[in-house]
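W.,

You were right to be curious about this one. When I first looked at the sequence I had no strong expectations either way, so I just let the prediction run and decided to look at it fresh. Below is the sequence, 507 residues in total, followed by the output.
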Amino acid sequence: MTRLLFGQSYFLRFDPKLWDAMQPYPPLGTLYAAGFMREAGYSVALFDAMLAESETEWAAALDRERPDLAVIYEDNFNYLSKMCLLRMRDAAFTMAGMAADRGIPVIIAGSDASDHPENYLDHGADYALIGEGELTLRELSDALTGRSDRPLESIAGLAWRETDPDGKRRIRRNPRRPDIRDLDHLPFPAWDLVDVERYRRIWLERHGYFSMNMVTTRGCPFHCNWCAKPIWGQRYNSRGPENVAQEMKFLKETYAPDHIWFVDDIMGLKPGWLEGFSAAVARLDAGIPFKCLSRVDLLLRPGETEALARAGAEIVWVGAESGSQAVLTAMEKGTQVEQIYAAAAALREAGIRVGFFLQFGYPGETRADVEATLGMVRQILPDDIGMSVSYPLPGTTFFERVRDDLGERRNWIDSNDLAMLYRGSFTTGFYRQLHTVLHKEYRMRKSWQALRRGRFDPRRTAGMVYQAATLPFERRKLDRMAGIPHEPARMTGESMPLEEASRPSPQ
């Protein structure tokens, strides 16, 4: 039986902020592809980079498994894979080269490979899958192993190098294939390939509970003009609520997680979906506390937050982005600042905590816009926050708008980079200092809130006093940095110091 070794290049060890947070999740998209190919009759194995020390463990897996095909299949449900971090791109190049050196054909799939297949084909990969990968992978594997005599030219969603009659090598890129619409007929992720007990030990030791990941949709139909969508474009497809509840029940009975992270861009897109899901969870006794992502306007639909609460939501993260309506309008976010306040109130009324994703640095942002966002956080005081700066990726309106202002570096090194990659209103240093100011004030106010509610913690109270004492200095430093002319980030190995890292992100 033909043997496929699956891997991916997101090494938690290579991302200092998230390694410090230590909230690891297996590569869900990779597990879906492995389960799909096993159902198609292939023997599959997994190299899980998430907890690996380096690429040398991939080399050991290649030697141990001796696969017929090496498939570096990035987890398209991990938003950090969509960001195409330079450290992970280099890891993928190294992994492809290791397989190529052993004479093993290499197939690559993921957001960066969909945007830039030539980079991977130049670094050891033989084939790149463009967009959603399962069907293309099956057809390609069948062709390579002799299961079919289908020519490569007929396989949609495939890129590879071929030789012209004059001997020149060029990239051949076939048209994209339509996305899979009936997601309920896909097999569940191949969880048996994962060392689940190792994940459980890490979670219990660091956090006192064990979390696993699930997904209910693929894609997002909204038009935020900074959001890159190299896999599913402007489309989305959804699993049925019953199918999701059945998988949840399977995980509950098989692995007994204490918590689930739904990694959808937006959970519960369809009107009534969450109501159907909460009913299915109750009927199947599948309930597990969870966190998910949503939009503030969707949360204001009648019954939405109540259905989330019945289904087991503990915290819902929303893309608040900015407290300035001018910025939200420029982003084509399609939401209003007033909806952010209303959605936060609705979630809390339903007994659900709320987390804010905040984005600074969008073109045209003023200091007043920055202060409006800080003021919004101050007033709402969400239960958690995550900060980023605008990140131009190919295929977005935002990228085209700032293309001429981009510097020589066009990707972050790791998730803690926060580099301004184009000539924006303020410098990278300003936004890194803003990160410090935002989190220092936020933690101070959260500690004061807890103290006022009678929850006294000596360590937290001492931290509050320190933050209050040092915040004015950090504010003055931010003011000084606001006047520094901005040049785009250079090709350096510098990223944000770990001691300035934010609280753990939802990842």
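Here's what jumped out at me. The radius of gyration is 23 Å. And, maybe more interesting for your project: Confidence is low (pLDDT under 50) at residues 491-507.

Coffee later to discuss?

I.
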